[in-house]
Design brief:
Blueprint lengths: L3 H41 L3 E3 L6 E3 L7
Antiparallel strand pairs: 1-2
Amino acid sequence: MEGSVEKAQGLMKLCDQLKEEREMLRKQNDNNHWSQTVELAAAQEKQMEVCTVCGAFLIVGDAQSV
């Protein structure tokens, strides 16, 4: 069993490094997720204009009902 302490210490150091890397990747993923959500919401936002007759908001390019 000699030398097992050094081997265990090396493995613990590796575990700590991997935990730090995992946390860093999680933070990057969270930031990336929010930026994608904002971009998606902006892309889905409809362009609107004000009707010159009644002042109601109209969706640009929407078919007018008869």
